[in-house]
Amino acid sequence: MDKLPIKMKAVDLNAWFSGKQALSKINMDVYSNKVTAVIGPSGCGKSTFVRNLNRLHETIPGATVEGAVFLDEENIFKPRYDLVDLRRRVGMVFQKPTPFPTMSIYENAAAGIKLAGRVPRPVVDQAVETALKQAALWNEVKDCLDKPGIGLSGGQQQRLCIARTLAVRPEVILLDEPCSALDPISTGKIEELIHELKKEYAIVIVTHNMQQAARVADFTGFFLLGELVEFDVTGKIFTAPRDKRTEDYVTGRFG
Amino acid sequence: MKRTTEWIIEKLIFISGIGSIVFVALIFFFLLKEGLSLFASVNVFSFLFGVNWYPISEPPQFGILPLILGSLLVTLGAVVIAVPLGIASALYVAEVAPKWLSEILKSGIELLAAIPSIVLGFIGIATLAPFLKNVFNLPSGLTALAGSIMLAFMAMPTIVSIIEDSINSVPRSYREGSLALGATRWQTIYRVILPAASSGILAAIMLGIGRVIGETMAVLMITGNAAILPTSILQPVRTLTATIAAEMGEAVSGSEHYFALFAIGIVLFVISFIINLVADFFMNRNKKRNKKK
Amino acid sequence: MFLVLIMFLSSGCARGNKAIQIKGSDTMVNLAEAWTEKFMEKYPESAVAVTGGGSGGGIASLISGTTDIAKASRDMHHKEILLANRRGVYPLELQVASDGVVVVVNPANPINKLTIKELSDIYTRKVKNWRELGGPDRQIVALSRERNSGTHVFFLETVVKLGQKKNPNEFAADVLMMPSSQAVVEEVISNKSAIGYIGLGYLNNRQKALAVGKDKRGPFFLPNIATVKKGEYPISRSLLFYTNGTPEARVQRFIDFVLSPDGQEIVKTMDFVPIK
């Protein structure tokens, strides 16, 4: 396990919302070309954890953070670290599909690229097509790229958001309960997509669905009350957990 | 028992709903009845497009083109000043300022709305007019521009608070979606938040225009009220509302002059109506565009 | 709902009937209030309500029967009298004081005197620069009162039209129409190029009053109580009360007070000119 290349590493990470501790002393690694699942009951801090990996947590008024997160051995919390660069390298997809309401499908997929500055139209076209293909959405939308993004179905919207993230060519993708608002068929499509994507990216997926974690993740971390209770390869977490609390949770004996 | 209560409540609501419509209709019919009497002796064309407003001369001349243009010029000027300033203030309050400061600013802006327009008018005469006179080297500072600036201030509270509300109602998820893509705060504001809040911004602008075109006292005090065809915003103008306010007291009930002032009322009513219609059109178009599959 | 509205209105009228209503000329508002104050000291059981609205507004109220006294700084027009008669109102005119309309400029303006003709030329914009009148090279900013002001009509007839009824002169369209005497005063204080006219009562030492003469040969008179009373100052006028026929007793008591030595003393303290 230790021989795997580490993409991101949290060291003694603490986080608060208006003085209330949401994460305490988290130490956890994210490996390149692997899917890492973060599971745990609601309010355990799993979303807060991933939102610290791209420093989105601290944009909420009253939110504070302490500790370190390394991306390729550089601490992202060091002073004057370039947040724009960080968020382009560490992309994120949210629980609810959030295509920008006033933009077309094309504009949504191109949004991230256009933020970086002036890019020639053919380059944008190419990037949009590649991203939509990677997100397995191209065939469904290639004829209506100028239609509003929010006109798509929920599953399509979520894949559009994934495409939007992929178009920026990140190194890490954070998925914050990406399927919780979707039907089983759309969920299946996204899970297939995750399998494909891990060939190129390090992926962190937050989920409260243990079957999903078991299906897609190579590693799993179990969070409880802001603490990382146990972190191991997924199979071990689900079949032979070391901690009693993990066992209770994965066997469904938890509230 | 319960049914009776419900019946009564239902009817009461119905009556109040109808009541407000009836009152508007009554006001409009009164306006029409008095205003249209003018056209027995003055033809509509020379009223709307005449360039001389001498209502108490012998014979009187009732040309309101200078007044219409005056109102439009002052309003346009106010909008040009108030809209960018209003959007910027709203953005600052909603997005940039720390919480404690934005609370102070918000109450400050609301306080601006509580100042009676006649007081603003006096402040304008004593400070703004001399200032404009010196800056632009004018014979007098009592100009359309002075009126526009004053009105812009009066429209600001409406514009800022509505825009601020619509910015705040943009879901946090859009903001985070944009930040997560590597957008800076400024890019997030103008690429995502402003477009998402656009219908609210449009509503704010329209309400602001409504406030401005109907405003009377401050305009009466500070625009010079000379009924000339304006060729520049640095000239004095006479607006429709100021004319009604200034002359209604003098006009003998039932005289041509009196009817002419009511006819001006009709013109104002029609202008406001058109503004509302345009606003409605834009907002509906926005909604449809968002719904379209 | 309408019934309630009507009840409100009628009860409002009923209460109003007890107080003596005085409406009209803004020039006379302060004067009328000073009279009212002293009158109510003398007769505490009486009530007098004074409102402005311009001479025309007061006359309109008299015609529609909503005031007991219309105060006016101009004579009623022929048209107004006809309209009144049609409505069964027969106005009775009574002079209660005199007033001089003062032509004021900024103290920095070197001009000290003008003729009626020169003033007329200024307000019809035949003369546009102070240089043409021997002053500095500055565009003249001519200020007038709004059309709801009795002073406006008086100045129009006496100065702009040179006192000739058939004269076609009008205020030029680009003359600035100020909504109140105070607004004229403010602009004259802050603007070296401005010229305006106000009632004698509004004059203070931050503006300069011009001496006015009937023609170039003079004589020129400065406006003050003495010159207005003697009728020497050319832009002076009567301040009037109009009532509907002979007033009832409670109104007559007020009018008697106004014309009494006490009442006329008040006229003097308010910077107008007593008639006796």
TrEMBL record, chain B:
Keywords of the record: Cell membrane, Membrane, Phosphate transport, Transmembrane, Transmembrane helix, Transport
UniProt cross-references to SUPFAM superfamilies, sorted A to Z: MetI-like
Residues annotated as domain ABC transmembrane type-1: 68-279
Matches recorded under Gene3D superfamilies: MetI-like (1.10.3720.10)
GO CC aspect terms: plasma membrane
Record-annotated membrane-spanning stretches: 12-32, 67-91, 111-132, 144-163, 189-210, 257-283
Topological type in the membrane: Multi-pass membrane protein
One family name in Pfam for this protein: BPD_transp_1
InterPro entries given in the database record: MetI-like, MetI-like_sf, Phosphate_PstC, Phosphate_Transport_Permease
A GO term for molecular function: phosphate transmembrane transporter activity
Location(s), subcellular: Cell membrane
Keyword presence, Lyase: no
GO biological process, one term: phosphate ion transport
Keyword check for Isomerase: no
Database matches in NCBIfam families: phosphate_pstC
Function: Part of the binding-protein-dependent transport system for phosphate; probably responsible for the translocation of the substrate across the membrane.
Similarity annotation: Belongs to the binding-protein-dependent transport system permease family. CysTW subfamily.
Protein name: Phosphate transport system permease protein
Annotated organism of origin: candidate division WOR-1 bacterium RIFOXYC12_FULL_54_18
Species lineage: Bacteria, Bacillati, Saganbacteria
UniProtKB/TrEMBL annotation, chain C:
Residue ranges of domain PBP in the record: 18-261
Protein role: Involved in the system for phosphate transport across the cytoplasmic membrane.
Family designation: Belongs to the PstS family.
Superkingdom, natural source: Bacteria
CDD domains, alphabetized: PBP2_phosphate_like_1
Keywords linked to the UniProt accession: Phosphate transport, Signal, Transport
Gene Ontology biological-process annotations: phosphate ion transport
Segments crossing the lipid bilayer: none
Family annotation (InterPro entries): PBP_domain, Phos-bd, Phosphate_ABC_transporter
GO MF annotation list: phosphate ion binding
NCBIfam families in alphabetical order: ptsS_2 (TIGR02136)
Official protein name in the record: Phosphate-binding protein
